[in-house]
């Protein structure tokens, strides 16, 4: 079978990117576009990588979940970042289910690592801590749990 040189170069570049770390399909497409490859060559390189299981959005999503959890990010932020990288919602949901987390405990751990002390409810500092945890991707319930459990622990 005859391959055009640019097609081989696109595959080579795709394999190089994937050898460094996991990529999602959209992310890999963007990197190849930025390198100046034709869309048809990129599509063929993507197809080649998928067929040989070098490229897998589920595997990529699970790795991103683990990576973001280590950084103290909540489910909402992880979901939003994967959506920004154009990962399908079904794949995001599956990745989150296959990498189960205790989001309440993670919110508490993130709060403990980020704040020297916990402010009382109603204060400006408490509002700042809430905003920070929201930015990290935690729900209101998870934030309440994290901050209030710490307030109870420090008051005893």
Structure in words:
The chain is mostly helical and 156 residues long. The protein has nine helices and no strands. It has helices at 5-20, 25-34, 39-51, 57-70, 75-84, 89-98, 103-114, 124-135, 140-155. The chain is elongated. The termini are far apart. 30% of the residues are buried. The mean pLDDT is 89.
Summary tags:
156 residues; mainly alpha; 9 helices; 0% strand; elongated
Content-based structural category:
mainly alpha
Sheet of most strands: none
**Low-pLDDT runs:** none
Q: How much helix, percentage-wise, in residues? A: over 70%
Order of helices and strands: HHHHHHHHH
Please tell me the overall pLDDT. 89
> Radius of gyration over alpha carbons?
21 Å
The percent range for strand residues is under 5%
Shape designation: elongated
Number of strands: 0
In short:
This protein has 156 residues and is mostly helical. It is built from 9 helices and no strands.
